[in-house]
Amino acid sequence: MTNFENRGLRIGIDASNLSGGGGVTHLVELLGAARPDEHGIERIVIWAGRKTLEQVPVRPWLERVHDPLLDESLMKRAFWQQAIGSRLREKRCGVLFVPGGTFLGTFRPFVTMSRNMLPFEYPEMRRYGLSPMLVKLLLLRMTQAVSFRKSDGLIFLSGYAKATVEKAIGGSPRRSGTIPHGVNGRFRSASRPHRPIASCSPGDPFRLLYVSAIAPYKHQWHVVEAVAALRREGVPVALDLVGPAYPASLHRLRKAQEKSDPEKAFIRYFGAVPYEELPGRYDGADAFVYASSCENLPNILLEAMAASLPIACSDRGPMPEVLGEAGIYFDPEVPGSISRALKTLIGDAGLRERCAMSARERARSYTWERCARETFDFLAAVARDSGRERGVSKG
Q1: Residue 391 within a domain
Q2: Which residue has the higher pLDDT, 271 or 77?
Q3: Based on the structure, what is the number of domains in the chain?
């Protein structure tokens, strides 16, 4: 692809259903690392709610457009999406990028992303029981499956996600690609000393960290049981949990905490903390534990890898694809399996050092510069191919 082939290309971004969390982080980092001129892109126009636009970087090639409807309910935002075609034609955009996943409008060509695995894994959805969340996930499965099949391009974040979603929706659009997210440089840390467990004590325990939302598929209560079992064996270990909570899962976590550590002496839950404070949490830990059973691309795992932490990790989903041989694996639904993996990691400082170094090296390839380059290459290619087809059809 040459700049000449795409000269003057304009790209529209529909961020109407992004309001926080990983979706906004991806958008902000992507635009912050973008070099549109390298892809022959003249201008990028983004539509989003006010809260999202306030976080998007200011760039001379970026036009930020606010519509009051995008600060309203899901139904109003869906109504707005149906009319985006006229806005895109007015701005002369050649392709629409929908990073939120769902697009039910009529504009073509459009590219979307698969970012949420829960709608495509029934066993994981069933963990929510009969609840509004289950209904939401089933609706997402329907709308995203339609969007993915109709799209002119579909971006996956991991090989695992690509294989799983394509099987669930019965194939993929003719153009698809796997483009992982990056890791912000603030999380990258040099190697750290790995103290032997013999130097730890009840007053200065070996500190485990688990950063993630408290949710049915994250299994924090099983980690609590595993840590309590190690404590009963005399291992001086403590667990810090960080992340927002789904109410029913928080109740389950509290019950496990009350049973294992009623004094809250060695199991602490800090709730959600600002994104800017997370690097300090990683720096204060001796090791990281990640017990999720459902992920598309585990950004938190990437952060822990970049922070040079030794990691005990779930053996489900894309986790082995991302972490490779740089960690110790366990079954996230079996506390005994978690306990054995933690005991292996905690008891061998040399193993921890080797795992941390390997994890840090693997994390080096996950950069936002790479993500931006590959994403805008992909978008430009879709626009180019679609333009050629329109030219053929008119000829």
Answers
A1: no
A2: 271
A3: 2
* Cβ-contact 305, 323 below 8 angstroms: yes
Q: 175, 226, 246: which is closest to 335 by C-alpha?
A: 226
Give the pLDDT of residue 82: 76
Q: For tokens 């939302």, what's the residue?
A: 213
* Cβ within 8 Å of residue 46, ≥6 positions away: 12, 13, 15, 27, 31, 53, 56, 62, 63, 64, 65
Percentage of the chain beyond pLDDT 70 is 96
Q: What's the rounded mean pLDDT across residues 233-242?
A: 96
Whether 182 and 369 have beta carbons less than 8 Å apart is answered as yes
Name the DSSP letter for residue 214: B
Q: What is the pLDDT of residue 84?
A: 77
Q: Is 157 exposed, middle or buried (0-12, 13-18, 19+ CB in 10 A)?
A: buried
Q: What token pair was written down for 322?
A: 């991302």
What distance in Å separates the CA atoms of residue 119 and residue 52, rounded to the nearest whole number? 24
pLDDT at position 178, please? 95
Q: Is 161 helix (H, G, I), strand (E, B) or coil?
A: helix
Distance CA 360, CA 121 (A): 30
Domain that holds residue 271: 185-363
Q: What CATH number did the domain enclosing 95 receive?
A: 3.40.50.2000
- Predicted confidence band of residue 73 (pLDDT cuts 50, 70, 90): confident
